[in-house]
């Protein structure tokens, strides 16, 4: 699932959004130089962004400062990456006890397929969409667009708003 689609939904709802891109020094330089596509500009409008290199010894300081005032963290990396970087739910909740965390991954955070990478086509096939389209007696057909990503974004944004409300009401990490 792509993080950009739920971000668009929440940004349009007048939320204050900061995109934290976790990068390494070499890839950061590359990303800052390449031209932006219209889709990228459209989906990321209304957001501020910051790049943080977690390989640097003091990288957690700016992240901790951002988390202190945050209501929500949306993570869309492979399962276990936050924990391997020393930023699992326990650390985030220690930084901000009323923070809500929404995690997006193609096959969930647990289970037998959690570590499998996925593309749009893989997600469509696993969800049964490919076999449900096309003509009888012909090969399966991929659904147009990036429907799985948009749906994941819609479900993530709904879950995010629910989690933020629950975290505020209970005054605890969700």
Give a brief outline of the structure.
44% of the residues lie in helices and 10% in strands. The chain is mainly alpha-helical and 174 residues long.
Describe the secondary-structure layout:
Elements: H1 3-12, E1 18-22, H2 25-33, H3 38-43, E2 48-52, H4 60-68, E3 72-75, H5 81-84, H6 89-95, E4 100-103, H7 120-126, H8 147-170
Parallel strand pairs: 1-2, 3-4
In words, what does this structure look like?
The chain has 174 residues and is mainly α. It starts with a helix and ends with a helix. It has helices at residues 3-12, 25-33, 38-43, 60-68, 81-84, 89-95, 120-126, 147-170; strands at residues 18-22, 48-52, 72-75, 100-103. The chain is elongated.
Mean pLDDT: 77
How big is the Rg? 18 Å
Structural class: mainly alpha
Biggest sheet strand line-up: 1-2
Strand content: 5-15%
What share of the residues lie within helices?
A: 40-55%
Instruction: Supply the number of helical segments.
Output: 8
Low-confidence stretches: 5-9
SSE succession: HEHHEHEHHEHH
Largest sheet: 2 strands, parallel
Q: What's the β-strand tally? A: 4
The N- and C-terminal alpha carbons lie at a distance of 21 Å
CA-based shape: elongated
Comma- or semicolon-separated keywords:
8 helices; two-stranded parallel sheet; mainly alpha; 174 residues
């Amino acid at each position: 699932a792509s993080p950009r689609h739920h971000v668009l939904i929440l940004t349009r709802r007048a939320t204050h959004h900061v995109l934290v891109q976790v990068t390494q020094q070499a890839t950061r330089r590359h990303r800052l130089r390449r031209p932006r596509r219209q889709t990228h500009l459209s989906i990321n409008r209304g957001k501020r962004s910051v790049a943080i290199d977690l390989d640097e010894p003091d990288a957690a300081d700016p992240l901790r400062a951002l988390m202190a005032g945050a209501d929500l963290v949306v993570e869309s990396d492979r399962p276990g990456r936050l924990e391997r970087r020393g930023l699992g739910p326990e650390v985030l909740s220690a930084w901000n006890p009323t923070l809500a965390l929404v995690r997006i991954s193609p096959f969930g955070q647990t289970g037998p397929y959690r570590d499998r990478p996925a593309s749009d086509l893989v997600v469509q096939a696993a969800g049964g969409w490919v076999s449900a389209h096309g003509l009888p007696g012909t090969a399966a057909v991929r659904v147009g667009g990036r429907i799985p990503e948009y749906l994941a974004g819609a479900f993530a944004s709904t879950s995010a708003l629910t989690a933020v409300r629950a975290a505020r009401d209970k005054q605890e990490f969700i």
